[in-house]
Amino acid sequence: MPAFHRRRPPIAASCALVALVTAISSPAWADPAPSYAQLLARLDQTPAATEALALEDAAEARVRQARVRPNPTVSLEAENVLGSGPFSGFGGADTTLSVSQDLELFGRRGARIDAARADARTATLRRDLAVVDAAGRLALAYAEAEAAERRAALADETLTLTLADARAALVLVEEGREPLLRGIQGESEAAAARATADEAAAERDAAFARLTAVAQLAAPVTSIPATLLDQTPASAAAAAEGPPTVRVAEAERQAAERRIAVERTRARPDISASVGVRRFEAEDANAFVFGLSVPLPLFDRNRGNIDAARAEFRAADARLASARQDAQADRAAAEARLAASVSRVRAADAGVTSAEEAYRLSRIGFEAGRISQLELRATRTALVSARTAAVDARLARVRAEIDLARQDGRAPFEGPQ
């Protein structure tokens, strides 16, 4: 046994070394991230919101273009010129200058404008949905970063507790009240806790990097000073106009219906009127010219495009039915998950309180020699599990709030938009 002691390094020295490494490797976070509310206020600067706004502007521009009438056509014709006999040169020329205009009869222009307006409304609703989705991604990235930060802090605290338990075990080993095996186990637990703390720190840094990218921040996020995990979800009722996904599907269906009307008007004759003046050089006289141009629908009656528009309308109608069913199921599921997560948070908090008291009492009993190190380790493990479960419960509550907010058409933890 004495020889074995000489081969082993002192446990106290090992614990002190691990504690020193912990203190040195722990970074001093200096640049906190903006709060979730501040990031939400600048959500329109994100690429997704910018893209959706640009597509809405494009749709509005197409509405303006749809209101514009077609340009008139100016034509100049010369007859009976550069021939033979009396038609040589330009002396007997008949010259006609005319202007023709597409009349856009049979509701062609109105149907075109209505279709463009329907597309613009769809683009507006898609923009709103894109903003809601962007807010959900931001809330999730913020909550995950905060959860990763808490897990890293919990891992550091666990390492501190493990080192303290290892030092207490060393004292008992030196007093002969515990076998040397308990001290070796303490060293092993401290090394495992150190590895867990390093892994948690890496996950925290990765979550901070994701938040920096999602929030489009110029400087990297280094800490989360304002909590989102502890924030109470907003109690907002369902939107009166329905979920955003359903509204988008309804707008797409209406736009598809408007395109059927456009294709039907294209099947009707495209009548053009013309007016002009003709110059008769031989008689030194002028005369007005009037005309109408009507295509004969012998071959192309636009039936293929009409059938295609009808098929697209049926597809849009099917998407709307599916969107309504999915929205109803998703909302019910989101409400159930949110209620369950709220109860889970309360239970997890109660579990943390109980686990903290159990560990405190077991630590007192261990130092007094009334309980073994195995019992102390069990209560410490239970405390770590309880605190981890509390963080997981809060993150689940945020996810449930994000799902419900998407159905309500609002940003998470905010009122109706």
Automatic annotation (TrEMBL):
User: In its keyword annotation, does this UniProt entry include Transport?
Assistant: no
Signal sequence annotation: 1-30
Q: Which Pfam families match?
A: OEP (PF02321)
Instruction: Alphabetically list the UniProt keywords.
Output: Signal
What's the domain of life for this entry? Bacteria
GO MF, any single term: efflux transmembrane transporter activity
Is Transmembrane helix one of the keywords? no
Residues annotated as coiled-coil are: none
Q: Of which family is this protein a member?
A: Belongs to the outer membrane factor (OMF) (TC 1.B.17) family.
Q: Any idea what this protein is called? A: Heavy metal RND efflux outer membrane protein, CzcC family
Q: Which organism is it from?
A: Brevundimonas abyssalis TAR-001
